[in-house]
Design brief:
Layout lengths: L2 H30 L10 H10 L5 H34 L11 H14 L4 H28 L9 H24 L2 H12 L9 H16 L1 H9 L11 H23 L5 H13 L3 H25 L8 H21 L1
Length: 340
């Protein structure tokens, strides 16, 4: 093995291990911090009770409640960050995020319609996912020519992007209509869902399965993404199946976005700032960028949700408020550094 390749591999392994430790630390902090804190000395006992499924003490009960929410926050943040990396690679646009094509807007229409008619919680989730799938299919059939294109040039996804923006605008109009006619008793819940709220979110296996599949796909095509990013015009001549890669990125990022929005609502800025922050800190190599963005995105949303539920305890803020308040200045700083 070439010495340079060995050094790069060692650097990548070191970075991933450090980010895994950071993710674990964020989950531990989320379990300890709250309106009633759990001392570090009580954490082993509380963790043992939580694993056994029979919490008998106050720390055990608190850890059980917080662990479910923290795990949901982690998988949601990781999914949004990974979808952001894919969307920016697909559209070759630094401002692209998981919501740019309107998939989340479709999920919002489905979820708010279910909330408006006072459906059960599982029906809200099903309606949200169905709305995201419907918009994804409409987007694919309306702009499939862009996804089949044989070139990866920057103008090659113009139709896809414009179609997504128009569909998103239409969905937002429907959302506004539902909010304007909703009774006061349901309006607060609908607004919290739109902002992004993790309170009461149980642990589900499906988002983890979707995240694992998205990671597996993106790692498999990471080298192709590097080639497409560096040699957009000549990617097809260099052996990259551009059409198949675009379709894979579209469907995989759409599925990740639908899963995240169905789980926690429309939490903004995670899929936009985390991929950029990883590129600034670690470079543009997708072989390292993909797992790093997923880990940092998960840890970031866990910490943001911890702040949201403790900063004005016992009252809780939606996690989307914290990510927006933090994400706006961070993204402006990143843009300033980019110009310099």
């Amino acid at each position: 093995m070439h010495p340079l390749s060995a050094n790069l591999r060692l650097r990548a392994v070191t970075v991933i291990i450090l980010l895994l430790l950071l993710s674990l630390a964020s989950l531990v902090a989320a379990g300890m911090i709250g309106s009633v804190s759990i001392p570090l000395a009580d954490m082993p006992g509380a963790l043992k009770e939580f694993i056994s499924g029979q919490p008998a003490s106050l720390p055990g009960h608190l850890l059980g409640l917080r662990a479910e929410r923290a795990a949901t926050a982690f998988v949601t943040g990781a999914s949004l960050s990974l979808a952001g990396v894919m969307m920016q690679a697909l559209l070759r646009n630094p401002l692209a995020d998981p919501y740019v094509l309107g998939i989340s807007s479709g999920a919002s229409v489905g979820a708010l319609a279910a909330l408006l008619f006072m459906c059960a919680a599982w029906m809200v989730d099903a309606a949200s996912f169905a709305g995201a799938v419907v918009v994804s299919m409409m987007l694919y059939f309306l702009a499939r020519r862009d996804l089949r294109g044989g070139t990866a040039a920057e103008g090659g996804t113009a139709l896809l992007l414009l179609t997504g923006v128009i569909l998103s605008s239409g969905c937002i109009a429907v959302v506004t209509l539902m909010l304007s006619i909703a009774p006061e008793s349901r309006l607060r819940t609908m607004v919290f869902w739109l902002i992004g709220d993790l309170s009461g979110s149980p642990i589900r296996w499906l988002p983890w399965i979707v995240l694992a599949g998205g990671l597996a796909f993106s790692l498999r095509v990471a080298r192709s993404l590097n080639v497409m990013a560096l040699h957009a015009e000549a990617a097809a001549t260099l052996g990259i199946r551009v059409g198949a890669l675009r379709k894979g990125l579209f469907f995989c990022s759409g599925l990740l976005t639908a899963s995240a929005v169905t789980t926690a609502g429309s939490i903004g800025f995670v899929g936009l700032i985390v991929p950029h922050a990883c590129r600034f800190a670690l470079g543009p190599d997708h072989r390292l960028l993909v797992p790093s963005a997923a880990l940092i995105g998960g840890a970031y949303l866990v910490l943001a949700d911890t702040v949201a539920r403790t900063i004005i305890a016992p009252q809780q803020l939606p996690a989307g408020v914290v990510t927006a308040l933090v994400g706006t200045p961070v993204f402006l700083y990143q843009l300033h550094r980019l110009r310099k």
